[in-house]
Amino acid sequence: MNNDPLSDVKEHLPPAVTRFNKSELNxxxxxxxxxxxxxxxxFSFPIQSIDPLAYLEMCWKENTFQYYWxxxxxxxxxxxxxxxxxxxxxxxxxxxxxxxKVKTVRQNxxxxxAISHPYSGxxxxxxxxxxxxxxxKLWEDFPPALFTLPKWMVIKDGKFTLATFAVDLNxxxxxxxxxxxxxxQLEHLNATLEQKNSAQNPHHNGENxxxxxxxxxxxxxKWSDSVNEAKDLIxxxxxxxxxxARSIKVPRSTEISPTQxxxxxxxxxxxxxxxxxxxxxxxxxxxxxxxxxISARNKLLLTEALAGSxxxxxxxxxxxxxxKQLSGNGKxxxxxxxxxxxxxxxxxxxxxxxxxNNTPEIKKLSNVQHLYTPIRAQLNEESNILEVLGQLHPxxxxxxxxxxxxxxxxxxxxxxxxxxxxxxxxxxxxxxxxEFAVAIRxxxxxxxxxxxxxxxxxxxxxDPATEWEETNLKLKPMLSAxxxx
Length: 485
Known about the structure:
Blueprint: H1 7-10, H2 15-18, H3 22-34, E1 40-47, H4 52-59, E2 66-71, E3 76-89, H5 94-107, E4 109-113, E5 123-128, E6 145-157, E7 160-168, H6 175-195, H7 220-235, E8 241-251, H8 258-268, E9 273-278, E10 284-289, E11 292-297, E12 300-311, H9 316-328, H10 330-347, E13 351-356, E14 361-364, E15 368-379, H11 385-392, E16 400-401, H12 403-413, E17 424-429, E18 434-438, E19 442-445, E20 449-458, H13 464-481
Parallel strand pairs: 1-4
Antiparallel strand pairs: 1-7, 2-3, 2-9, 3-6, 5-6, 5-17, 6-7, 8-16, 8-20, 9-10, 10-19, 11-12, 11-18, 12-15, 13-15, 14-15, 17-18, 19-20
Helix pairs in contact: 3-6, 5-11, 8-13
């Protein structure tokens, strides 16, 4: 009889796990219970290659937390599900509150990994609403700050795939009991991987829905009034720029699963962050955003200015013409420069070195192109990365400039509650790595409807009709992914 509970799994795993010494896990488990100092523990193992989105589909549970994050061009993806614990915060100090709670969870977590890898161990997944308070019933599943420690994760990093299981140690009495739990998790993982070539999406019937998009009751007049009022405020020096957004509501087809929507997005928008957060209520916030807010690795911070937009051309000549038009447009250049200047001002107290190009590049997506300036900075040793995140949000690309002057007017000029729209969304791990994007080009899917959001920057030269068409352009990716073609 084979007494090694990992033996059945090993033959399906890469050599790193095949060579894994089982006694190391036994010693780790014994120490956990002989000298208990932690509340949580994580266990990471390399596994055979699988698309994390496919794994999420095969493990999908409608009444639990589910999560997905991918930027295809970076060859990086996270799928996760179920909840061990979560941390929340609200109010103006929410970023620092979350930072302190992240530290507490880290201090109370012990990690075991079969290999050394920057993405092994503890991850907290979630994000922040746009404003620091949230009183809208539509967004009641999403507090102003919410991060979840999932029970399981599958992470794909290039050609390498890693599985991590998290446990609450208070639910286990002995090392042997926990050992049996880990064994069961690995066996379930292995069984799921065995199904990957034949399994169908368990929550989708395989048929595409092409429900026609219903005609929306025009809110153009409200939009035009808001833009003109914003321009009037700019002329009175209330602020220099404000970002106004629209929301539309369409019927949701139950035949299109959240993972299908994300799959549609990631195939078309490979240079975007494709994300999904599903709540036990059945509500799902998902999207495909081109805008990185912040990435941090070992005190190296990456962020970017993304503002100024124009459509893609139907031919190479037309596309090049539109690109030149965008680069030479004074209104778009002004809007972009506001973003660059504001980011630099916000980062200055936290960095000892900052680098960027003087002239913006063009970022081309499948249906739109943007003015784009990547920014690299070396953080000061004492800098708190989540505090930096709080200082960067919201950038003028989604808020306004100066932000403190523009902020009070957004709620008055818009006709909906932003909730998670345009807020920071992403993850942070125990090694201090983190990545957050700005949750634009997004939708909140409830039981019967999908609520879609899109916005654009209003400056002194803005034209309401042109800005209306820009928001229509930005709504197209989500409408297409939801199969409202």
